[in-house]
Amino acid sequence: MTHSFETGLACKVGVNGAIFLQNLSFWIAKNKANKRHLHEDRYWTYNSAAAMVELFPYWNERQIYHLADTLVKDGLILKRQKGGADRTSWFAFTDKGLALMKSHLTNLSDGTDKSVTSI
Questions:
Q1: pTM as predicted
Q2: H helix runs in 6-48, sequence order
């Protein structure tokens, strides 16, 4: 598996933050295209920390929790959990987070942009 990040975004939120946000952006755009998981006027995606460790083997669960909590504290994402035994986290972009993503990833930010500048 290949992971990458946009350098301008990484300069603002760090490499780990950029990787995490770009992954959320991909899945949220996919959910928007499929008209799935629209709640609170936002499209959401979900995953457990254990599943993220499988996707990102260079992070452990503690690092994933810390990264997500930092992005929440910075006002870039929202995080919700159903509670009880279900430890799955749901994520959506805040308005601030969506604006940041649009400024760096016009082709992935929310699934609405149609053009990509070629090299």
A1: 0.84
A2: 7-33
Of 57, 50, 45, 37, the residue nearest 21 (C-alpha): 45
Q: Coil, strand or helix: which one is 76?
A: coil
- Band the pLDDT of 111: cuts 50, 70, 90: very low
% of the chain residues with pLDDT over 70: 88
Distance from C-alpha of 51 to C-alpha of 56, rounded to nearest angstrom: 9
| CA-CA-CA-CA torsion sign (90, 96, 99, 105) | negative
H-type helices in 1-119, by residue range? Answer: 7-33, 49-55, 61-73, 95-104
| Alpha-carbon span 66 to 84, nearest angstrom | 20
Helix then strand then coil, in percent of the chain rounded to 5, is: 50, 20, 35
> Alpha-carbon distance 8 to 14, whole Å?
9
pLDDT per position as a tens digit, 12-67: 999 999 999 999 999 999 999 999 999 999 999 999 999 999 999 999 999 999 99
